[in-house]
Structure prediction request, 332 residues.
Amino acid sequence: MSSEQVSTNIITPNSEDCETIEAGVSGASVKKVYRSSGWVVIKSHQDIGIDETNGRNLLSPYLKLPEVLEFDDNSIVYPYIPGPNLDQLATISPDNALGPIRNTLTAHVAMWNSTCNQEPATGGYVAKIAKTEKILWEARLAQNSLTDLATNDFIINGVKIGKINQALYVLKSTIESAAQRGSVLTHGDEGWNNHILAPTGEVFSIDFGTAGRRIPGEAIAKFIGWFPAVAISALDYNLFIENGQAILTTETKLDPSLASLVKDGVLPELQGFIDTQGRSSEVAACLMTYFIRELQWLKKRGREEMEPHLIAMALSCLPAIMNGKLNLSFLE
Ligand SMILES: Nc1ncnc2c1ncn2[C@@H]1O[C@H](COP(=O)(O)OP(=O)(O)OP(=O)(O)O)[C@@H](O)[C@H]1O
Ligand SMILES: [Mg+2]
Prediction:
């Protein structure tokens, strides 16, 4: 299928047309509205006009972004881009998504390389360590919170992980030492739903209100982890507690074409940057953080059954953090 065939149908405009676009997890209101100049998208949320114009100024030298038609503090207007988000395209037609996904990654890697410096990262995951720890401690496995299970040594899908507080200590120290190494400019919300393929074949990045300097592992984790976190389905899990051990086994299913898109499309584009900069442990720590943080959106995404599976995916990143070998077991 060509990219044109999967584009959103353009509705015949009339001056009354206005539709609400399904809200994401950010809480912003997003409306598609017809104006005499054509279709526009109006986003409204507290400070969104300030945040997205700031983000646009930072990113515009590096990424293709929609122009701002109008804004005030709490709203912003963009031209409507008539095309699929890359996550939709990947689901409908993975072959057609591969090229645009690669091009998007190339642009982001170039941005990280151009903006890399020794300014310590203070934003993003570094600033969210305490909140991330809280999310994990409050997460639930069967009838237990992880706080209830704190004294147990975890074995997840046959791999010894150890105690949660030890895992969180390793996570925190890895993120903090990565932050001390320096930072790069990142988009800030790199999930594949925030990239739109225009009919011209160009990919527009949207939703850039949190652009800023971060450790690059965070952006990489969002690119690698998006499909596993959002598109994996829960099959079954089992928790067995015995002699101070919490033995967790999980079964999930990820569409094989999405899994190979990540393995053969996303990862190879990022591997050079990860290897050259020696950032495998950092990426694994950011993946663990990303999966933990996704736990807070499960209810909004209607995916509460994924809780034990995301916990397992998060904690299974620990060996890779410790030995510096990225192991994407969640793609198997
Ligand atoms: N300029 C645009 N042209 C076409 N569609 C758009 C445009 N801006 C936003 N959208 C659509 O609206 C959706 C939500 O917009 P956006 O990502 O900016 O808001 P959000 O609520 O912050 O999203 P989330 O919380 O899911 O990240 C996008 O995924 C996209 O489908
Ligand atoms: Mg979005």
